[in-house]
Amino acid sequence: MSLEVEGLSIVLDGRRVVDDVSFGVADGARVGLIGESGSGKSLTALAVLGLLPDGAEVDGSIRWNGRELLGLRDRELAALRGEQIGIVFQEPQTALNPLRTVGRQIAEPLRIHGRVGRRDALARAQADADRVRLPEGALRRYPHQLSGGQRQRVAIAMALAARPRLLIADEPTTALDVTIQAEILALLGELVDDDGMSLLFITHDLAVLSQVATEAVVLERGRVVETGAVADLLTAPRSEVTRGLLRDATATVWRPEGDA
């Protein structure tokens, strides 16, 4: 399956925040949407699943495996979310339900999309918890009883529970320290490979993107300013925006090969 976005424009509160954005995510591809804060990358990702704020005006086309998503009723979009397209948000503390145990939350997508019984769903939730390397007993805990990195692992397990074909990861490591960030990025890459999924990864950090994606779409103020292989963006950026992102990346985690 593949995702095709063509001429996407989004207007919020009378202001055009995404303007004529086009890109594709082929089956099994790893594509990054990258740009500074306010570039429209997260809004573009939210538009794919119909999760934009109320009042947003959307034009263009978003096709999933040839099916147009713009204009679908919420019930139809809800059937796609989780089952065919999963999403991991930046801050799991707000994405997780504080009143439900971790086990119930990982099992919920299986109950909704997999149509399995409660006992089978909990058994599969344990298998998914093990898969994302949650500690023993985590399923009985509540989100506030876990660390930030553990909560993000729960969010990943939930997003992948129904084995979607595309995973959207919206800045999933921004709130984590560098060590935990590296662990989560490695885990995401491993899971995407294991399931043969496509990945759409949203970030402002070129160093992070270089660890999980092979292709990139660079946004500035809602418009595409550069596309290409991540390796090319790291070695020969064409736009000033990408050069700025590269300078920031070099100053933090990533170093060009051969640099001390």
From TrEMBL:
Q: Which SMART domains match?
A: AAA
What is the topology of this protein in the membrane according to its UniProt annotation? Peripheral membrane protein
What CDD domains does the annotation carry? ABC_NikE_OppD_transporters (cd03257)
Please give the InterPro entries that the UniProt record associates with this protein: AAA+_ATPase, ABC_Ni/Peptide_Import, ABC_transporter-like_ATP-bd, ABC_transporter-like_CS, P-loop_NTPase
Keywords for this protein: ATP-binding, Cell membrane, Membrane, Nucleotide-binding, Transport
Predominant subcellular localization, coarse grouping: membrane
Which residue intervals define the domain ABC transporter in the entry?
3-246
The record's Pfam families line, in alphabetical order, gives: ABC_tran (PF00005)
Q: Name one GO molecular function term.
A: ATP binding
* Classification via Gene3D superfamilies: P-loop containing nucleotide triphosphate hydrolases
- Where is the protein localized? Cell membrane
The keyword RNA-binding belongs to this UniProt entry's keyword annotation: no
Q: Which protein family is named in the record?
A: Belongs to the ABC transporter superfamily.
**Name of the protein described by the UniProt record:** Peptide/nickel transport system ATP-binding protein
Q: Which organism is it from?
A: Microbacterium paludicola
